[in-house]
User: What shape does this take?
Amino acid sequence: SEIEKGDYGHFMLKEIYEQSAVIKNTLSGRVSANHVLEEAFGIKAKDIFDKVNNVQIVACGTSFHAGLITKYWLENIAKMPCQVDIASDYRYRNIIVRPGTLFVTISQSGETADTLAALRYADELGYVGSLAICNVATSSLVRESDFSLLTMAGREIGVASTKAFTTQLCALLLLSLVLGRRNGMTDESEAQHVTDLHKLPGLVDQVLELDEAIKELSISFADKNHALFLGRGNQYPVAKEGALKLKEISYIHAEAYPAGELKHGPLALVDDKMPVIAVAPNDELLGKLKGNLAEVSARGGKLFVFADESGGFDDDGDYKLIRMPAVPDVLAPILYTVPLQLLSYHVAILKGTDVDHPRNLAKSVTVE
Ligand code: G6P
Assistant: This one.
């Protein structure tokens, strides 16, 4: 049956609001109260996982950003190295595969030409197996991979990916946990992560309540030609995803930088016409990030900070502040993605673009 927008003006907004429900769907049957149910990865998975000591991720677009975040999880949770590549680049390189490497593709559609070509190329390179994280059960990517874990986002219609991304992240966190189990992660640690995951849908709903405040914020962007997104650690890929969303649907040139790299170039661009958006959970890098933000303020840059309510940012500071709920470090990249989706949506509305069908872009790029 035809999917309707309902009361939402656009599919993108509907899909943003569906996120807590589809995250629940993606977790359902894959986790118990405190444990990942590994069978969810299929019967072939166990033997392959037992051989894995390294992970190669390949994807395009927003799915590539999910891969970038996963690298931090694999390092921290599974204590495993991880390489992340853009499919169109990977497929034309001379890839050197270390023994024990799992090949992981991430794709909403499962039909992206470059990602499929990368999988076919990888098939001859000696990986221990290929895993697809995908939203379409009947896709070529799922059919051609050794095994798959489906994201249960439901059909995504807006060209700019939202709910597919956050459910990919949930699936990839489950992957990090099953690999972590084999590499020294304790049962207590797994139980903590899974307990936290069960709280994620509620946290996402809390962030959606910031919608009005974010809409207000969007007014400051509608007349801008550029924007800079900053994050540190696993928030750097979140900043990249925020910048991509803004580019895709509002046509504002946006760039993301790891905040520590500011002084090596982008600081030269900062003036009072350059909005700078920062994602600032209360993690171990917060102090460093604050130092970087002070550098922006000192140059007259207009700061917009999405910050943990416990992060010590003052309401009367030299920035516009959106207070985010406290969130476990591991889940912060998923949660901080949501306000940036809303921001780009509201900016696009102010600019009057075709939100669900941005110019020159396709939902699924099935040709090279
Ligand atoms: C296109 C879409 C993006 C998507 C990318 C990768 O560029 O517009 O939203 O992230 O393809 O698509 P995939 O289906 O492989 O995730």
Remarks:
- Residues 63 and 106 are 6 Å apart (CA to CA).
- Residues 187-208 form the longest helix (22 residues).
- The mean pLDDT is 96.
- The radius of gyration is 20 Å.
